[in-house]
Fold this protein.
Amino acid sequence: ELRIVNSGLPRSQKTLAELLQEEYPQVLCNDGSAHLFKRREIEYLAGMLDTKEKEELSLPMLIELSGGQSHATVVRTGAAEEKVLARTLGMPVASEQGRILLYKPQLALLRKKLKTTTQYVFSPKITQ
């Protein structure tokens, strides 16, 4: 059941600016656990963003996966997310209706570099 699979999702996100101020950067999850961020990833992101963008970037970035799809989408995207994804992947990305489409090779690279600052959200397969 999706509720169980997604129980480790954050109750809320924090901005990169907020996380940079914390000794142990973390957010609380729906199941009561803490999602910890690696300082190295936080600093990597901070190095590519200006002050305003650090206040706009919400973490963890949520990556939505649906059953049977060959791609995933990064949800709630703004200019800061686009910049982070483009630089991390080394290619341009485009946001459409608040989402950025990622294919499996891009997703693997993103998760390799940003394991703690991204998180999967599982959703039901949508048929049209």
Observations:
- Helices lie at 2-5, 16-21, 39-46, 51-56, 79-89, 104-113.
